[in-house]
Design brief:
Elements: H1 7-26, H2 52-74, E1 86-90, H3 97-103, E2 110-115, H4 117-129, H5 131-134, E3 142-144, E4 149-151, E5 155-159, H6 165-174, E6 183-188, H7 196-209, E7 212-220, H8 228-235, H9 240-249, E8 254-259, H10 260-266, H11 270-277, H12 285-292, E9 295-303
Parallel strand pairs: 1-2, 1-6, 2-5, 6-7
Antiparallel strand pairs: 3-4, 4-5, 7-9, 8-9
Helix pairs in contact: 1-2, 10-12
Bound molecules: S-adenosylmethionine.
């Protein structure tokens, strides 16, 4: 589907992510003190209105990433272990997770974000404009709006087309990532916009590069295999089993994938669920179930250091 979309259309999908996040934050689903800064830089005219079901879905997406990321940051020995952890976000858009982690006192050693230059330039401009963000980067931070780059002690933003594997190599080198440190790689609603050859190349590259790593993926899927392979090819949206296989077929040692309905029911804790279910009138359960089955989280694990025995959907 997406391989046929124009670069501008793909970049504009970031507007929808910002609109959904902002709507959820405004309604009290989650806290993000930075996302509102990005509203004016949205490319299109995304509407900030969202239905309760959308908000709950978005909340579940936000929550599962944060929960797995925290597991990663807490893995290993010693309470200061996040000081040697790296996060690499592919197609990061206007995501503000680094700034939230910083505010929570759990800054990783390095947080690197990549996206097209059109997107990183706008992000660099926002970070430069708002002291609430800029101050989080420390006095050594350097920001180039023209290049779409931010470099600071713990946070780096670079432009890259992630389909360009030699560029991925050079950019992580420029960002001073250390491939032997534990690394969490995020591809949240990104790979769906790429062609299958590029997806394979990126997933293999990440596995070859990082021997102690978690590769996190969130995206749309076809809910089950019942229609058979032919239907899946027509829809170009594989089921969650294919996402697990994607990792195992491209070098990752372990992998798992759950659809978002299972994640909501069995992974997000019940107090959280009860809190958000009281925020808005929510009665379209059937529709909600169907929608959640169309999205999944999958992860691949390489565990050369033996850090991730307790990591995962448990
Ligand atoms: N990951 C962010 C989130 O979940 O909030 C943004 C998701 S947005 C739907 C998809 C992002 O992927 C856009 O910012 C787009 O520019 C980026 N993207 C898509 N294809 C890309 C590519 N080939 N190289 C770099 N970035 C890409």
């Amino acid at each position: 589907v997406a391989a046929r979309s124009s670069p501008a259309a793909v970049q504009a999908t970031n507007d929808d992510a910002v609109a959904s996040k902002l709507s959820c934050v405004n309604k009290g689903y989650m806290k993000d003190d930075y996302v509102h800064f990005f509203k004016l830089k949205m490319i299109g005219n995304s509407n900030l209105f969202s239905f309760p079901n959308d908000s709950e879905g978005y909340y579940a997406r936000w929550s599962v990433l944060r929960k797995l990321m925290r597991q990663f940051l807490n893995s290993g020995n010693g309470s200061n272990d996040q000081k040697r952890k790296q996060i690499l976000s592919l197609g990061a858009g206007f995501d503000t997770t680094f700034f939230q982690l910083q505010g929570e006192g759990i800054t990783p050693y390095l947080y690197v974000e990549l996206d097209f230059k059109e997107v990183t330039s706008k992000k660099a401009a926002i970070i430069n404009h708002y002291s609430e963000m800029k101050e989080k980067l420390g006095p050594e931070a350097s920001i180039s709006i023209e290049k779409g780059e931010v470099t600071s002690e713990h946070y780096k933003l670079f432009s890259a087309d992630i389909r360009d594997i030699p560029k991925l190599d050079s950019v992580i080198h420029m960002a001073e990532m250390n491939p032997s440190l534990p690394t969490f790689i995020i591809a949240e609603c990104v790979l769906i916009y790429l062609d299958p050859t590029s997806i394979s190349a990126i997933v293999s590259w990440a596995s070859d590069k990082f021997s102690t790593a978690i590769s996190f993926l969130y995206e749309q899927i076809h809910p089950d295999d019942a229609f058979g392979e032919q239907m899946i090819i027509i829809l170009e949206v594989p089921s969650f089993i294919h996402k697990e296989k994607l990792f195992l077929d491209h070098g990752w040692k372990r992998a798992a994938a759950w659809d978002m309905l299972k994640i909501y029911n069995d992974f997000i804790n019940s107090e959280e669920r009860h809190r958000i279910e009281r925020l808005e009138l929510f009665d379209e359960f059937e529709e909600w179930h169907m929608m959640q089955e169309h999205y999944c989280v999958a992860y691949g694990i390489n565990d050369a250091e033996g850090l991730f025995d307790d990591f995962g959907f448990k």
